[in-house]
Amino acid sequence: MALVRTLVVIAILAAGFTQPAAGENYLYQIIEATVLVADTDRTADALESWVEQNGGYALLKSSDQVILRLPFEEIPQLRSKLEELSDYILELSPQSQDLREAILETVAKINSRQEVLRQALALLDQADVKGTLAIEKEVLTLIEEIEQLTATLQNLTLNRTFSRAEISLRYLEQTLPENIPSSFGWINGVNFYSFIKQGLSREDN
């Protein structure tokens, strides 16, 4: 019974969960981007450094992809940073999910189970041995549910606080590959990568 009482107290005191406050952010924002860069490794390092300086962190960093978690306030600055570091932004797709309903529902479930725990704790002193065992079993089940719901709430809070950016890095060659001569002499002198970049710029305009 002492163990159950301890677990109950921990579960009840673990969280004073409140309703979502007005004016706070409750959108989980996800940015998917693909950029052309001259040096993928250097760009990946620069993005990691930038996000850490602005209160975020990198989940993944490789030569072809960077996944960042950054404070939602920094989302407007992300596009500017990508424009600064890249030669061309091929894709930029913002998405968002409103988490308010999910947070309210999770908080309500936690509060209801905490109330049942308080009632069960009050009954323990009055129950006989058989009744005590039944109450303890119910209490342990409720505590497990509260732990699961608390983990869900923590994840929701993380997502509304830190947005996610998945940035694919594509290498932009600056010169025509060597040892691939054409039978047409004029083609050998064309910088196709600059030509393609100019075409993409016209489409974007």
Written overview of the protein:
The protein has 205 residues and is α+β, with helices and mostly antiparallel strands. Helices cover 55% and strands 21% of the residues. It has helices at 2-13, 40-53, 75-85, 100-124, 129-161, 185-188, 192-204; strands spanning 27-37, 57-61, 65-71, 88-98, 162-171. A 5-stranded mixed sheet has the order 2-3-5-1-4. The N and C termini lie far apart (72 Å).
Quickly list its features.
single chain; 205 residues; alpha+beta; five-stranded mixed β-sheet; 7 helices; 21% strand
Strand content: 15-25%
Structural class: alpha+beta
- Number of helical elements: 7
How many β strands by DSSP?
Answer: 5
Terminal-residue CA separation:
72 Å
Q: Mind summarizing the main beta sheet?
A: 5 strands, mixed
Percent helix range: 40-55%
Q: In short, what is this structure?
A:
By secondary structure, this protein is of the alpha+beta class.
Topology at a glance:
Elements (H helix, E strand, L loop, with lengths): L1 H12 L13 E11 L2 H14 L3 E5 L3 E7 L3 H11 L2 E11 L1 H25 L4 H33 E10 L13 H4 L3 H13 L1
Parallel strand pairs: 1-5
Antiparallel strand pairs: 1-4, 2-3, 3-5
